[in-house]
Amino acid sequence: MGHTLILAEKPSQAKAYADALQHTKKQDGYIEVNDGRFFKEKAYITWGYGHLVELLSPEQYNETWKIWKLDQLPMFPGQFQLQVSKDKKKQFNIVKRLLNHSTEIIVATDCDREGENIARSIISLAGASHKPTKRLWINSLEVDEIQKGFRHLNNGKNYLSLYQEAQTRQYSDWLVGMNASRLYTLLLQKQGMKGVFSVGRVQTATLYLLYKRQKEIEDFVSQDYFTFQGKVQVPNGSFEAKHKQRFATKEEAQKVLQEKGVLPGVNDGIIQEVKKERKRTKSPKLHSLSSLQSTANKQWEYSPSEVLKIAQSLYEKKVLSYPRTDSHFITDSEFAYIKNNLSNYQECIGVDVEVVYPDAQKRYVDNTKVAEHYALVPTKQTPNFSALNEKEKNIYLEVIATTLAMFAPDYGYEETKVEVGVKGINFEATGKVEKQIGWKSLFKNQQQARKKETVLPAMEKDQACQVNVEIAEGKTKPPKYYTEGQLINVMKHAGKEIDDEALQHTLKESEGIGTEATRASIIETLKHQLYIGIRKNLVTVLDKGKILCQAVEGTLLASPEMTAKWETYLKKIGENEGSQELFLDKIKQMIESLMQEAPKKIGSMEQSLQQVNEKSFIGKCPRCNHEDGKIQDKGKFYGCSRYREGCTFTLPKKFLGKSISQINIKKLLGGEKTNLIKGFTSKKGKMFDASLRYDQTEQKITFEFPKG
Ligand SMILES: [Zn+2]
Q1: Residue 211 pLDDT more than 60?
Q2: What is the CA(187)–ligand 1 centre distance, in A?
Q3: pLDDT value, residue 319
Q4: Exposure winner among 519, 535, 592, 595, fewest CB in 10 A?
Q5: Which of 551, 514, 510, 560 is nearest to 531 (CA)?
Q6: What CATH superfamily is the domain 200-218+481-603?
Q7: Which residues form the Topo IA-type catalytic domain (predicted)?
C-alpha cells in the first residue's frame, strides 16, 4: 500500500502540521499520521533542515577548477548538478525512502520561491520528480489555517514556475559568485591586496549603492548661504517667519534690503495672507516585511535580519501571519476575522480604539492586490505575553497597532500658513496644531518623531505688524548615510531614495533589487565580508568594500538598475513568461565581459590600492616573523595577513573590558610596552590599571603594573 508524503521545510514546521492532525506518532525523522478527515491512506510528514541538497562545487564539475587560477576562468558547468549536503545524509535518506514509496507528495515547505526550490531539489535528487504533487499554501500556522490548507490543496504543477525562478536565481548566483569572486580576488591579490573579495549578483550592486552615497557625502562641499528672517509682532503675540530666497554672499543680501528700503531691525509690515486648513492623515498601510524592517530599525535600531528572525518566531508561535510578504493588503476574509477579534487585540495593546471605519477600505483590503501572501497581520490567536521576549513584544505590538489603526479615526490637525510683507519682501510662517490624535494613539508606546506643534498667535489678513528683520546665515548640508532600515527601502527601489511613504507604495515592487525574503541576508553578508560596518545605526563602507567598488565601477555588477531589471526578468520566469536558458546566457555574457574589463580597471588602481595597503598596515606579525606577515584590522580583532598560510596570530581589540587603541597595538607589535591603560576589570571583577606587553617567548599578552 502506498502513502501520502508531506514534505516540510524544517522540524518545527512539521510539528505544527502534526499538531493540526489526528492520530500522529513521532518516529525517527518523520511523523506517522492516520487522519481519515484529510488523507484516505496513511500519511507521513517528513522534513528537511532547510536545504538538504546543494549545487556541486566547481572542482566537482572539473578537477582543474580546484585551484583558483585566472586562466581557468570562466567556469561554466555544462549542466548544474545537485548533491546531498555533507551533514544531512541521514535525514535525506529517510526522506528519499518515504518519497519513493509514496503515491502522492504534498509539498509543504515555506510558501515562497525558496521553499519551492528546497522541496523540488530534494524530490529531484531522490528521483521522485515523476510522482503527482499537491501544494499546501497557507498564510499562518494556526490549527484551523493548516486544516483549511489540507482540505484545499493546490495542484503542485501550478508552482513549477516558481521553482524555475528560484533555480535560475540559484544558478546565476553560482555563476556570478564563483567566477567573479575568483576573478576579482586574483586580480586584486596580484596588486598586493590580501584576502578574498567575494562578489555577488545582488550583494555587489547593493554595496555599490552604499559606496555611491558615501562618495557623495565625502565629496560634498558645504556652502554658506544668506537669507532674511524676521520676528513678527502682532497684538496677540509674536512668531518667527522666513524669507524663501537664498543669497550666496552677505553683501548680496544687504544690497537687496537696501534696494527695497528695508533696514536691519524693526520695520513696519503687513499680514498679507492667513490661510487655515484642516488636514487629516490616514493610518499607515499594513506592513510588508520591508516596511516592518525599516520601521523597527528606526524605532528600536533592530537590524533587518533581526526583524525577520523575530517575525519568523512569532509566526511559529502562531500569532503572526506569514512573514516573508511584500504585500500591504489583506483580503476580505482576513478583514472579517480581524474585525471579529478586535476586542482581543485591543486588550493586547491596552488601548481602546474608537471604531470609525467598521467596513473594509480599499487602502488596506483589496483582494486583487494579494497574490502570494497578504500583509503582516495578527492571527486569530493572541499570544501569552509572558512567553514573548521584549523584542517579540515590540514587533507584535507594532503589527497589532498598524492593524487596528485601519479602524481608528484619522489623525487630524490644523495648518495655518501666514505671509507677511515688508516693503515687497515676503516672509512666511507655518503653524500646525493637532486637533485629533486618532490612530496615533495606538502607537503611544513609541517615541513618535512627531514634529513639534508650532502655534501661531491669532491674526487677520491686512493687519499691521512689526517685523524685526535680520540677515541669517546657513550652510548647505551633505546627504546622510543610510540606516539599515533605509537601506532596505533603497534596495527595494534600486537606489531611488524615496522618503515619502505614499510615493514608496506607488512604485512597483519588482523595480528593486533582491527579494523581500533575501534583502536582510544580503546586508548580513556584506557585514560579514567586512565590506560594510554599522556605526550608530548608520551604514558605512569600509576600506575593503571601497576597493571592490572601485574595481567593479562601470561594470554591470555595479549597476543597481541592471540588477533590478534582472530581478524583474526572474519574476517573469516565476510567472511562466521567461526562459531560464536566456537568462543564464545573459549572465554568462556579463561574466565574459567582466573578464575583459576587470584587468584593465584594476591595473589602473595601483595608487589607491597602495594607499589602502599602507593604511591597513599596523605592524609586523610577531609570531610567524615572515616578511609577508602583516597585522591587519579584521573588524573585531587584529590578525596576521598570513592566516591562509596557517598563521593564527590575533590580538583582541578589547582586553578585559577595555578597548586597546591602535597606537598601543602598534607599540605591542613593536615589542614595546603600551601606555598605562586605566580601568581593566579582572575575571573576579576587580578594577586595575596596567601597561601591556607582548611576550615573544610565551606568545601572549602580559601585564606590567605601575611602580609605587
Ligand atoms: Zn603571522
Answers
A1: yes
A2: 23
A3: 94
A4: 535
A5: 551
A6: Topoisomerase I, domain 2 (1.10.460.10)
A7: 159-595
Distance 689 CA to ligand 1 centre (A): 29
Q: Is the model's pLDDT at 591 over the cut of 70?
A: yes
* Distance in Å, CA 667 to ligand 1 centroid: 17
The residue among 114, 146, 194 whose CA lies nearest residue 632 is 194
Determine the distance separating the centroid of ligand 1 and the alpha carbon of 19, expressed in angstroms. Answer: 55
- Ligand 1 midpoint to CA 197 (Å): 21
Fill in the amino acid letter for 293. Q
Domain ranges in the chain are 3-152, 200-218+481-603, 224-282+412-475, 289-405, 617-704
For ligand 1, the distance from its centroid to the CA atom of residue 632, given in whole angstroms, is: 10
- Using the predicted structure, report yes or no on whether residue 447 has a pLDDT greater than 60: no
Report, in angstroms and rounded to the nearest whole number, the Rg of the chain calculated over CA atoms: 31
Q: 646 CA to middle of ligand 1, Å?
A: 8
Residues 639 and 630: their CA atoms lie apart, in Å, by 8
Whole-angstrom Cα distance, residue 563 to residue 557?
8
Predicted confidence (pLDDT) at residue 502 exceeds the cutoff of 50: no
Gap from CA of 9 to ligand 1 centroid (Å): 43
Using the mean position of ligand 1's atoms as its centre, give its distance from the Cα of residue 190 in Å: 20
CA 625 to centroid of ligand 1, rounded, Å: 6
pLDDT at position 619? 82
The domain over range 224-282+412-475 is classified in CATH as 2.70.20.10: yes
Task: Answer whether 200's CB lies under 8 Å from 553's CB.
Answer: no
Q: How far apart are CA 598 and CA 65, in angstroms?
A: 20
How remote is the CA of residue 602 from the centroid of ligand 1, in Å?
27
* Identity of the highest mean pLDDT range in 570-574, 579-583, 604-608, 654-658: 579-583
Ligand 1 centroid from CA 192, angstroms: 16
What's the CA-to-centroid distance between 649 and ligand 1, angstroms?
6
Q: CATH classification of 289-405 is 1.10.290.10, yes or no?
A: yes
- Predicted pLDDT of residue 498: 47
Domain 3-152 has CATH 3.40.50.150: no
Q: What is the Å distance from ligand 1's center to 637 Cα?
A: 14
Indicate the average pLDDT of the chain. Answer: 89
Summarize pLDDT for 235-272 with one digit per residue, the tens: 989 999 999 999 999 999 999 999 988 888 899 999 99
Interval 371-383 mean pLDDT: 90
Rounded to the nearest angstrom, the distance between the alpha carbon of 699 and the centre of ligand 1 is: 12
| Cα 531 to middle of ligand 1, angstroms | 23
User: Residues 6 or more apart from 526 whose CB is under 8 A from it?
Assistant: 203, 206, 207, 532, 545
How many A from CA of 357 to the centre of ligand 1? 68
pLDDT, position 503:
46
% of the chain at pLDDT higher than 70 = 95
As a whole number, mean pLDDT of residues 99-107 equals: 95
What's the grid cell of residue 313? Answer: 518566531
- Give distance in angstroms: CA of 644 to centre of ligand 1: 10
- Is 371 a residue whose pLDDT tops 80? no
Instruction: Output the CA 196–ligand 1 centroid distance in Å.
Output: 17
* C-alpha cell of residue 560: 543597481
Residue 12 alpha carbon to ligand 1 centre in Å: 45
Q: How far apart (Å, rounded) are the C-alpha atoms in residues 112 and 162? A: 8
The grid cell for 95 is: 526522506
| Residue 448 pLDDT > 70 | no
Question: C-alpha distances in angstroms, 92 versus 84, 106, 107, 117?
Answer: 7, 17, 16, 15
CA 619 to ligand 1 centroid distance, Å: 11
